[in-house]
Amino acid sequence: MLVVGVERDGDVLTPRGGTVVQQGGVVSLFSETGPERTSLEAFGT
Predict the structure, then answer these.
(1) CA dihedral in degrees (37, 29, 22, 42; nearest 10)?
(2) Choosing a second label site near 31 at 20 to 30 A (CA), which of 8, 15, 38, 41?
(3) Sequence spans of domains, the chain
């Protein structure tokens, strides 16, 4: 599972090592095998 984008306040950010996921943001994930329950639970989904 790879975080490929973070949308925050109308801007789309390419995540880097210091990127912080904040409440209300939209996170885009990529996975070759589909969503993993544990990964989705980490984001409150």
Answers:
(1) 10
(2) 8
(3) 2-42
**In which band, very low, low, confident or very high, does the pLDDT at 43 lie, cut at 50, 70 and 90?**
confident
Q: With a threshold of 0.90, does the pTM exceed it?
A: no
Q: How far apart are CA 8 and CA 31, in angstroms?
A: 22
pLDDT in tens, 4-15: 999 999 999 999
What tokens appear for 40 in the block?
């989705």
Distance of CA 1 to the CA centre of its chain: 10
Which burial class, exposed, middle or buried, applies to 3 when counting CB atoms under 10 A from its CB (0-12, 13-18, 19+)? middle
- Location of structure tokens 């989705």: 40
